[in-house]
């Protein structure tokens, strides 16, 4: 995957973890596909999992963690 950004924007998907857990690889791929279908490049996407506390662990690779 090409990670060098070439645009002036960054599309950020934030999943707030309350009961279902962090962004899974399957969920991340589904969100990527929605964005690609809308004309965005994967290099202009970011994924954040927000946890209630610091005990969480992001499941999908390439996701940022926000405790």
UniProtKB/TrEMBL annotation:
BP GO annotations: DNA restriction-modification system
Domain BsuBI/PstI restriction endonuclease per the UniProt entry, residue ranges: 7-55
One Pfam family named in its UniProt record: BsuBI_PstI_RE
A GO MF term: type II site-specific deoxyribonuclease activity
Taxonomic superkingdom: Bacteria
The protein, known as: BsuBI/PstI restriction endonuclease domain-containing protein
